[in-house]
Amino acid sequence: MSPALAKSAEKLKNEIEDYHKGVKYLHESGIQKVPKKYIFPISERPNSYTINGKTQVASKGHNLKLPIIDFGQLYGPNRAQVLDSLSYACENYGFFQLVNHGIPEEVIKNMVDVGGRFFDLPLVEREKYMTNDMTTPVRYGTSFNQTKDGVFCWRDFLKLVCDPLPNVLPHWPSSPSDFREMAVAYSKETKILFIKLVEAILESLGINVATKNKTQQNDDDDEEMLKEFEDGSQLMAINFYPPCPNPDLTLGMPPHSDYGFLTLLLQDEVEGLQVKCKDDWVTIQPIPGAFVVNVGDHLELFSNGKYKSVLHRVLVNSLKSRISVASLHSLPFNSIIKPSPKLISETNPRLYKDTNFAAFLEYLKSCDSTNKSFLETRKIT
């Protein structure tokens, strides 16, 4: 090999190694432009869209005010109205903002703070948790699926399996020194909130699982379902998006829907989350202390298509870093997810095949994440 080719090969090798160290590392190294590996095709960039096969430049996306659900109102005389609002939001938006949810402000602040301090650790500390094994209890990485993505996205993440907690906790980061304490408190609070919220959402579908409802008898299947959710899976993803020198060329996360039943997203004050609303991408305005809650693939499948798991993506900017904490909840990993028999009839036939977590993992391993939709593979055509 000639010296010039050898030098070029060495440069390429170093670039690949840098990509896999994450965008936090690239930002700290002082790069002035987005590396080619992170540049999306023109039609997939934040300010573009396609009509009749031709790429158009989009105007600046407007902000979307999602339905706001006051969680405290669920337990008062307005419960029926809140359930109607939940149903409307899940059916028409696939997203809503949840306020007055009862999780202490201190728990929320501590989680955002300790997540930020984790990403401030030296790379040598963070990369201890780097792995391509999607089944590990803790995984640090970059992009979306760095083993398959043709183009990388501008995100680093720390994913934590949260159950069973006694088994996974020893694998969680021990630095910062208070990381486990803060993350455990947050995961427990969000799990409690999820159980209460899923009861309400199921009730809005006409499936009453409230164990203390004195006016309506629950059948054994309903109570067993609630027990499954209580024993269900929880995955936390702490996402970090550093400033990007060319935010119009890349994305923090590509369009995707969430695997699972419900996602409770805590985001800081920096805008970035966008939701696909009809044919337009619209930005979600952060509400301090609120959760952005979205329907996952499992809930769309369970509701037989009534509630919608919607594509969403994340933009980045050149001035500010952004951090979010997503808590993804569903049934246990070994459960079979299928449309509820109570929601299927002659006039509303079954629309989806059964699925499980193993099928989702196989899907993830087999495809590029951009514009992915696992749910499409489950539809009965």
What does this structure look like?
The chain is an alpha+beta fold. Helix content is 30%, strand content 20%. The chain contains 10 helices and 15 strands. The chain has helices spanning 3-21, 23-28, 79-92, 105-119, 123-126, 165-168, 179-204, 220-230, 297-302, 357-366, and strands spanning 48-51, 54-57, 63-64, 68-70, 95-99, 138-142, 156-161, 233-241, 253-256, 262-267, 273-277, 280-284, 291-295, 312-314, 322-330. The strands form 3 sheets. It has an 8-stranded mixed β-sheet. It has a 5-stranded mixed β-sheet with strand order 3-12-11-14-9, with no helix packed on it. A two-stranded antiparallel sheet has the order 1-2. Strand 1 and strand 2 form a beta hairpin. Helix 4 packs across helix 7 (179-204). The chain is globular and about 70 Å long. Residues 4-15, 49-60 and 211-218 have low confidence and may be disordered.
